[in-house]
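During the second half of the funding period, the structural biology subgroup turned its attention to how the target accommodates small molecules. The most pressing case was fe (ii) ion, which had performed well in the primary screen but for which no bound structure existed. We therefore specified the complex as follows and requested a full 3D prediction, including the ligand pose.
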Amino acid sequence: MKLVKLTREQIIRRVVVFGVLAALICPGLYNKLKVVNYTLESDKITTPVRIALVTDLHSCKYGDHESELIAAIDSQSPDVILLGGDIFDDKLPNDNTVDFLSGIAGRYPVYYVTGNHEFWGGVDQYDVQMSILDDLGIPRLQGDVLSLNINGNSIGLVGVDDYDSHLVDSELILENQFVDAYLNLDASSYNIILSHRPEYFDTYTAQDYDLALCGHAHGGQWRIPGILNGLYAPNQGLFPKYAGGLYEEDGTTMIVSRGLARESTMIPRLYNRPELVIIDLV
Ligand SMILES: [Fe+2]
C-alpha cells in the first residue's frame, strides 16, 4: 500500500469535512422514540377523544419488555389504541411484539389491522401471530364496522386487512372489505378507517371517511427536514406523496404514521425518528 503524505492544510481540511459530515449525519441517526400530536376539529365530536396510533413496530425493541413504548402511551392516556399493521414482522421473532401487546391488552380498548408483513411469513407464522391476538383478546378488524361510544361520541371504526392478505387466504380480499364496510357506515357518526396503506387515500376520500389512519411508508426512510418529506416508500417509490404526516382532501383527513421500525430494516432511518402518533378529536 502506498502511503500519501498529506500537508498540514490537507489534514485540517479533511478533519473539517469529516466533522461537518458527522455533525450532519449523527443527529439524523438519533432514533429515539418521539410522540407526534395532531388535533382535529369536527362538528360530530362533542367531548374530546384521544387516539393512540401505533404502526410498523415490526417487533423492534423499545426497552425491557417494550417499557419505553408502553410508558410513552401511558403518558398520553389515550381513550383507545389503534394498531395499524406490521406490528409483527416476518423475519424478527414475535417476542417484542408479544411484550408490547401484553402490556396494553386489557388496560385500553385496542383494535388491530394487519400489514403486509403479517402475511409475508407464510401461513404457519401468520396463524401463530393471529392466535397471539386472540389469546390476548385484541380484536382484529377485517371490513367490520364497529359502532363505538367514546366519551359520549358516536364513532364508527372500520378496519381492513392489508392488500397482501390474499397471500395466506384467497378469500381475504381488501377491495371486498372496503365495500362491506362502506355499505354499513352510518354517516352521522364520526367515521374512522384503520388501514395499513396510505396509497388508497382516494378510496378513503370517495367513501367519505372523516379520518383515515395508516402506516406502511416508514416516513420515506430518509428525510431532510423542511426540504424532503421522505425519499422512498414501499408501493409508492421514490419521493412518496404519502410518506408521513397529515393529508386532507374533500373532507377526509388522512394521518400517516412514520411508524416504529428500527432494527428490522437494513438501511437506517435518517432524520426520521420513530413515532407514536396521538390524535385528539375535539
Ligand atoms: Fe407495511
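Two results from this model are relevant to the next phase. The mean pLDDT is 94. The chain has one domain: 33-281.
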